[in-house]
Specification:
The chain is of the alpha/beta class. The chain is built from 26 helices and 21 strands. It comes from Pseudolactococcus laudensis.
Length: 717
């Protein structure tokens, strides 16, 4: 028998029986039976075993399955001891889906694909040894965090750690083009290189001159952003990791760019094939001024990036449109285009209904909260990465006159359910920061110098969270209730405090800070003013955090002084990604948004439907597992807003609506049909609450389809 000759297995049938009620009850025991059958029929017969850990390591090295450099940093006695300790923890998957996902997507297999070479303990061993970089104490700590699922590295990190033949450890990338042909050409090459390496690529197009703008004095010569988008889409289609995955990218455009309507039209269902983009995602950067013009039902003016850069001396993205709007309007040397703000608002909402796009980046909200010197101009493929960038200047031969800074995303996630049971919350966070820092320090993207330069200067990481709804249900809290918002506020405040402390200790130990630390709100201490007060918790939330130290005002004062004295190693520390398939392995709800189904139905490519019950689903938790599609989305926005206060980057927030909404869900509705007005109100509410970004708008239709369902796993951890 081998993995390629499996026959007469029972686990898919047993798993599917969860969806058949027995006497009105969900037969959850069928999932447990499927899990046992999966190990009996699939894993154990097809797992290559070895008499000793030493012999296994020798085999993996001899056959070039793992790298030798990191293994040489440890004695075989220590590796054996750590491996035996991991197996002694008696890890158990809690669902069939979790085990199936791990062995299908993450476990190392023989070159012919016929046998497994790893259990989850072995994959965790490789992660712990690799990220600890020879530090045995850290390797033990990371093994502890990983086997108890308090920490989950991003998919590229968890999958590739230690392997000889692997992709990069980072999740996705952000680059930008400036308004000249050399920059466009260089960015296309960068997109090809980055897509080859792995992960999704975000590209900022706001700096490009609009269709019809002059080129070297010739009027109406420029073709605008749409043909450039087609170049990127073809690049991602070509550069797809040897056919192993679909190349993925997102292009961002300012809502005040003259090509905004044409940009949105590329995703319309009836778009002409010449302009339609099928696989490229769309994002829009939206300043506060736009919301003001929409509220006033006013005309809005779109400004020529070519003219703006010519007069202001910097690319269009780096202009504060809200602050400069009246000056731009009054300047006769800047070409402008008049539209109705609400007409554009309707176009955005209609397209979100049709496709789920565009993502919305509230760019002024992000920059006001940004403690770093510089300007955030875009985001990534999943809208949670918000970091400052600087533009490059190129010579005619495409060499760099001025090397700018672009971004690589290095992500990991806390598991809320399990981290809240950590015997030492601070130590857990510190170990996670160290693991993420290893990836940052050892990421060296030579093919794209701006990415390499940005990573070298910023040392950024992105620690997030998954399983928030699972935690709420377990503790009988309604998602979006005051106590759930209070819990979210405290949880993310803790992540902020302890990652700041870890980053400060890195700076103290290494004598290094991120570039321009001295110009940040951390250096002058102003960032910490929001925290210099003691927290007063409700009785229920205080009970939940019992045994976990909540930083006092004095703790924050001490941290402020230490940061001002020693600096911070990491420019950015926190970001909440969508958490796709990896949340199944952790047996918790994805990210911090609500579940969509109590028994989730997933269509797997070759095997058909697999059913996944929500974590700890039982009679007492069912009332607290309301589907996102049956929930007032303002609850979701409120939870994300509570976390946003403490997250120095962004949070990938999806909004879930039905095409036919439950009666009485929203007080402004007189019927049940979803309208563009619903989306307008919710997007404006999110902006008002200080939410930095909105990822997909997902709509559940009458025929059971999901419009805007996330198909991208490139940077989904």
């Amino acid at each position: 028998m081998s993995l390629k000759t499996l026959e007469n297995v029972s686990y898919f049938r047993l798993n599917n029986e969860i969806n058949i009620p027995v006497n009105g009850q969900i037969p959850l025991h069928k999932d447990h039976e499927a899990l046992l059958a999966f190990f009996e029929e699939n894993v154990r017969p097809n797992l290559k075993t070895f008499p000793t850990v030493a012999e296994k390591i020798a085999y993996l090295l001899e056959h070039d399955y793992i790298e030798s450099d990191f293994i040489k940093k440890y004695s075989i006695a220590f590796i054996t001891e750590l491996s035996e300790w991991l197996y002694a923890q008696n890890f158990q998957f809690k669902s069939f889906m979790a085990a199936y996902k791990f062995y299908q997507q993450y476990a190392l297999k023989t070159n012919d694909g016929e046998f497994y070479l790893e259990n989850i303990e072995d994959r965790i061993l490789m992660n712990a040894l690799y990220f600890a970089d020879g530090d045995t104490e850290l390797a033990q700590s990371l093994a502890d965090e990983l086997i108890h699922q308090r920490y989950q590295p991003a998919t590229p990190s968890f999958l590739n750690a230690g392997r000889s033949r692997r992709g990069e450890l980072v999740s996705c990338f952000l680059i930008q083009a400036t308004d000249d042909m050399n920059s466009i050409g260089r960015s296309v090459n960068s997109a090809l290189q980055l897509s080859r390496i792995g992960g999704g690529v975000g590209i900022n197009l706001s700096n490009l001159r609009e269709a019809g703008a002059p080129i070297k004095g010739i009027e109406n010569a420029a073709s605008g952003v749409v043909p450039v988008m087609k170049l990127y889409e073809d690049s991602f289609s070509y550069s797809n990791q040897l056919g192993q995955r679909q190349g993925a990218g997102v292009t961002y455009l300012s809502v005040f760019h003259p090509d905004i309507m044409a940009f949105l039209s590329t995703k319309k269902e009836n778009a002409d094939e010449k302009i339609r983009v099928k696989t490229l995602s769309l994002g829009v950067t939206v300043p506060d001024k736009y919301y003001e013009l929409v509220r006033e039902n006013a005309d809005m003016f779109l400004f020529s990036p070519y003219d703006v850069e010519r007069i202001y001396g910097k690319p269009f993205s780096y202009i504060d449109i809200t602050a400069e709007y009246d000056n731009l309007l009054a300047n006769n040397d800047i070409k402008k285009y008049r539209i109705r703000a609400r007409d554009l608002e309707q176009e955005i909402a209609k397209l979100q209904q049709e496709s789920g796009y565009p993502y919305i980046i509230n760019i002024d909200v992000a920059n006001k909260a940004n403690p770093i010197h510089g300007k955030i101009v875009m985001s990534n493929l999943c809208s949670e990465i918000l970091q400052v960038q600087t533009a490059s200047e190129l010579n005619e031969d495409q060499t760099y006159k001025t090397l700018g800074t672009d971004i690589s995303c290095n992500l990991g996630s806390t598991n809320v359910v399990n981290l809240m049971q950590s015997p030492n919350f601070e130590k857990s966070i510190d170990s996670m920061v160290k693991a993420l820092t290893f990836v940052t320090d050892h990421s060296d993207i030579d093919a794209v110098p701006t990415i390499k330069n940005g990573n070298k200067k910023a040392h950024t990481i992105g620690l997030g969270a998954m399983g928030l709804h699972s935690y709420f249900a377990k503790h009988h809290m309604v998602y979006g209730s005051p106590e759930s918002i209070e819990f979210t506020d405290i949880y993310f405040m803790l992540l902020n405090f302890y990652t700041l402390k870890s980053s400060m200790n890195f700076a103290r130990k290494t004598g290094q800070t991120f570039d321009d630390f001295d110009k940040s709100a951390y250096a002058d201490g102003t960032y910490f003013e929001q925290y210099i007060e003691d927290k007063h918790l409700s009785d229920k939330v205080a009970t939940l955090f019992e045994g976990i130290h909540i930083p006092t005002a004095e703790d924050w004062r001490e941290l402020r002084q230490n940061v001002m004295t020693h600096g911070l190693y990491h420019q950015n520390r926190l970001a909440v990604a969508p958490n796709g398939s990896i949340s199944y392995i952790n047996d918790v709800s994805a990210s911090i948004h609500p579940i969509t189904q109590r028994i989730e139905e997933r269509q797997e490519k070759k095997t058909g439907k697999i059913y996944y019950p929500a974590r700890d689903l039982a009679t007492d938790t069912i009332p607290y597992y309301t589907s996102a599609y049956d929930m007032d989305m303002r609850r979701v926005i409120d939870v994300y807003a509570a976390a946003t206060k403490h997250v120095d980057q962004g949070l990938s927030m999806t909004l879930f609506l039905r095409s036919e909404m439950p009666v009485g869900l929203y007080e402004w509705k007189t019927d049940t049909k979803q309208t563009t007005r619903d989306l307008n109100i919710l997007r404006n509410y999110a902006h008002h609450k200080g939410v930095k970004s909105i990822y997909y708008i997902r709509t559940f239709t009458d025929n059971g389809d999901e419009v805007g369902a996330n198909q991208c796993e490139s940077c989904v951890i």
